[in-house]
Amino acid sequence: MKSTQDNISVIEKIGYSLGDLAANLIFQTLMTFLAFFYTDVYKIPPGKASFIIFTGGMIGAFFNPVMGVIADRTKTRWGKFRPWILFTSIPFGIVAILAFSTPDFDLTGKVTYALITYILLVIIYSANNLPYASLSGVMTGNMSERNSISSYRFVAVMVAQFVVQVLLLPLVLILGEGDKVEGFKQTIWLFAIVGVVFFIITFLTTRERVLPQAEGVSSVKQDIKDLVRNKPWRAVLLITIFVFVTLSLKGGMYVYYFNDFVDNASLSTFLENIGFNGFILNLNEWLINMGFVGFTWPDDPATSGFSLFNAGGIIMMMVGIGFSKPLADKFGKRDIFGLSLFLSAVCLVLFYFYDNDAIALIFITQLVHGLFYGISTPLLWAMIADVADYSELINFRRATAIIFSAMIFGLKAGLSIGGALVAGLLAWYGYDEQAVLQDALTISGIKLSVSIYPALFFFISVACLIFYKINKAKELEIQEELSNRREPSPKRL
After folding, report:
1. 106 or 400: whose pLDDT is higher?
2. Could you give the 3-state DSSP secondary structure of residue 445?
3. 314 contact partners, CB below 8 Å, separation of at least 6
4. In the 8-state DSSP scheme, what is residue 393?
5. Are 239 and 411 in contact (CB under 8 A)?
6. Taking the CB of residue 292, how many other CB atoms lie within 10 A of it?
7. Is the Cβ–Cβ distance between 206 and 375 less than 8 Å?
8. Distance between CA atoms of 374 and 344, rounded to whole angstroms?
9. Residues 194-216 pLDDT 10s
């Protein structure tokens, strides 16, 4: 049974979710636009951009276990994890602004500056996001409530994803008045300010309730030993890596897909026929009649199509998230996660078979893909929290942060590999950042990179679930046993 101790208010769930919205304004920008920013805005060649993304990202990834050890041993009146969200909020915003700045250096200077600022950004992201993710594992010991927290959290993630993937390019063009350099600068400033405010709200509205037993104190060596022999943890680590390789690869390639593969004339006709262009015109007319300045939407079909494509996918992800908790509560996280991820991978494969003028099919497939992927999205992080519980069950010690740090390592590694693959595949297939039109080989590579390549990583993720043994019955067993062991935690400020 769920005790009062495990109850989480709606206010606390919303407050917690705003922390991921804040982080994802930057994270989604990295995942979707970093390669584009380096190649098309800062004018760094794709091969060197690949080196920056992979090297910087992997350095950040290896920092995560260190941060996990530090966070698990943090002791304050506010808890282990909440203080880090507060203390890193302003540095996070500052470094994000620096990472998307474009000082006028020669090529060597550009590469050096981009590498240093990217390393700083992924390190400060780890110092912020690892404690944030770990916090979900100690807000409650009830697994149904964790499913609920994850659902709230990932609705917020989808909002951030919507803002970045749908509105970032228009914001860049609008705020920069056509100048992409100035536009990126202004947009990241906006994201940074909003992010700092949301991080502070997360700190003020959340509480840590699950405390380790007195006998649960252990050495770093013992924590690592316990981690390595934890089979569910090894499975989830691999899953996390492959999932984020997919997200980074396809997300980073979509902008090239619309700019270089999708037929502009067919896309323009599609946008006209579905009423999108009319909607923008009516919106402008309404704003002007109300005494406001008209909304300046970019004129090119590629930007509009890219934004609408992402918007549709994100809206369907939100719908999918709504199904996630009830399905997981009934059938267990593992089984629902595996099925939904498999079906979303099948949708990705379909993109390979579409011609550049099959606009309706491209958009419909994105909607279906978004629905299935949305179901899986909250479950991965809830599964990680369950792995922390499993570790506590068998080891009689709780090491929440180091377990989450390994998962954030997987996230960073996946992001780095996927981001590097975007730039690397562009270089491999002969992408020319100065060319108006790309050749057939480059177009083929872009098409493969939004379909077959990312789908393979999703299929591998599903296969890894063979080694993840925490099914519905095991979830209930772990919850009951740990509930009997734990004592109610004191209230914290």
Report:
1. 106
2. helix
3. 158, 161, 162, 165, 166, 370
4. H
5. no
6. 10
7. no
8. 9
9. 999 999 999 999 998 876 554 44
Q: Which letter does DSSP use for residue 489 in this model?
A: P
416-241-79 Cα angle (round to 5): 95
Place of tokens 């899986």: 376
Domains and CATH numbers, the chain: 11-208+219-485 (1.20.1250.20)
What does 295-346 look like in DSSP terms, one character per residue?
Answer: P-----HHHHHHHHHHHHHHHHHHHHHHHHHHHHHHH-HHHHHHHHHHHHHH
- The tens digit of pLDDT for each residue in 426-463 reads 989 998 877 778 899 999 999 999 999 999 999 999 99
pLDDT, tens digit (0-9, with 9 covering 90-100), for 253-280: 998 999 999 999 999 999 999 998 888 7
150 is written with which tokens?
Answer: 């994850």
Report if pTM > 0.85. Answer: no
From the CA atom positions of the chain, what is the Rg in Å?
Answer: 22
Residue in 400, 384, 399, 394 with CA at minimum distance from that of residue 482 = 394
Query: Measured in whole angstroms, how far is the alpha carbon of residue 433 from the centre of its chain?
Result: 26
Please give the Cα distance from 130 to 403 (Å, whole number): 10
Residues 491, 200: Cα–Cα separation, whole Å: 19
Helices 231-256 and 452-464 meet at what angle, rounded to 10? Answer: 170
**How far is Cα 258 from Cα 240, in angstroms, rounded to an integer?**
27
204: number of Cβ within 10 Å: 11
Look at the alpha carbons of 358, 363, 364, 370 in this order and tell me if their dihedral is positive or negative.
Answer: positive
Residues 45-79 have pLDDT tens digits of: 988 998 998 898 888 888 877 887 788 788 888 88
Q: Locate 76 and state its tokens.
A: 């304050």
DSSP state for residue 468 in the 8-state scheme: -
Q: Which of 261, 269, 306 is CA-nearest to residue 32?
A: 306
Q: Let me know: does 353 contact 470? Beta carbons within 8 Å.
A: no
pLDDT at 293: 52
- b/e sequence 58-67, b meaning 16+ C-beta within 10 Å: bbbbebbbbb
